[in-house]
Amino acid sequence: MTTIPFRWDQVGSLLRPTALKEAREQFKQGNISKEDLTKVEDQEIIKIIEKQKEVGLLAVTDGEFRRRWWHLDFIAGLNGITVYDFETTAFGLTTEAQGTFVSDKLSFNSAHPFLSHFKFTKEHAGEAIAKQTIPGPNMIYLDSFILSKQYHEKPAYEKKADFIQDLITTYQEAIEAFYAAGCRYLQLDDTSWGGLFDARFRGMIEQNGYDPDELIQEFGDITEAILANKPADLAVTFHFCKGNFQSHWLYDGSYDLIAERLLAITAFDGFFLEFDDERSGSFEPLKNIKDQRVVLGLVTTKTPELESKELLKNRIKEASQYVPLDQLCLSPQCGFSSTHEGNKVSEADQWAKLKLVVEVAKEVWPND
């Protein structure tokens, strides 16, 4: 099988088509049933899978079409999690949002809806590889435990160590369940690592009694533990970006602080890393890579302008000063619709950018 991650790949989420947005609004208003909404989701996912294959992608997703959020829908489906509504200005705009906190002992739900969602994607993927994306474990550790006001007001655990063990077990069981469902390409999206180098978030972490530098090691340990028993023929990748909400970001800072620990996680087959603008910093932290692949997120999903092939090839060449060219791949820096609202790009922009990724990668790595 061709190596995962692929030379030309994608992160996962895609812009929600109008028919799906309208159906979701109709369901929200109580005008159609959950079954009616699912039918629309099914139809649109079948279409989007075919479109991904048309542009030449080897790994296809369901576009995250059944989700409201890229992360929260999965977390909400676990046992011991409570969801709440709030208003946020974190991304530079005021908007309604949702959060989660650990409200009881954490465990995996064997009837988690994402399992049937994946089976549907796999059924319709045909000769393509069905890729499943889920949020990484440290999303729960940081947002639903460390920084959660609700959790600290009424802790569900006497000892942090007990929570961490349950978190690890939950993810080990999730990985086993997806594998049993036929998944052979799983991606952990874990933006929580950004909170460990962003000055504002490091301050918030310290205010809650934690040392962000110690958490770098701990985040790595947790991640390694959940992957300790993964099947040999299951490819698992890691995706990181600095937040992506309607083309706005959340974290500032470079990979310097986290790269040594993060890139030492050899159980990952590859790392999808954001390098689409000057905020990403240099490629130098990539010198910490072992033998995993690095998928360079050079094509932005935040703005509609199409990057030039020359620019992308020059950036790949620059990165190859730190990572052998044979270990490099190309993708957009993030998904196109981390939430159901989507980024400030059109569907035409989206497909043009994905097509560009395929074309440039084929020119840079002609033998793949």
Automatic annotation (TrEMBL):
Database matches in Pfam families: Meth_synt_2
Coiled coil feature spans: none
Cobalamin-independent methionine synthase MetE C-terminal/archaeal domain residues: 11-362
Gene3D superfamilies (alphabetical): 3.20.20.210
GO molecular function list: 5-methyltetrahydropteroyltriglutamate-homocysteine S-methyltransferase activity; zinc ion binding
Top-level lineage group: Bacteria
Transmembrane segments: none
Protein name listed in UniProt: Cobalamin-independent methionine synthase MetE C-terminal/archaeal domain-containing protein
Organism this protein belongs to: Candidatus Enterococcus clewellii
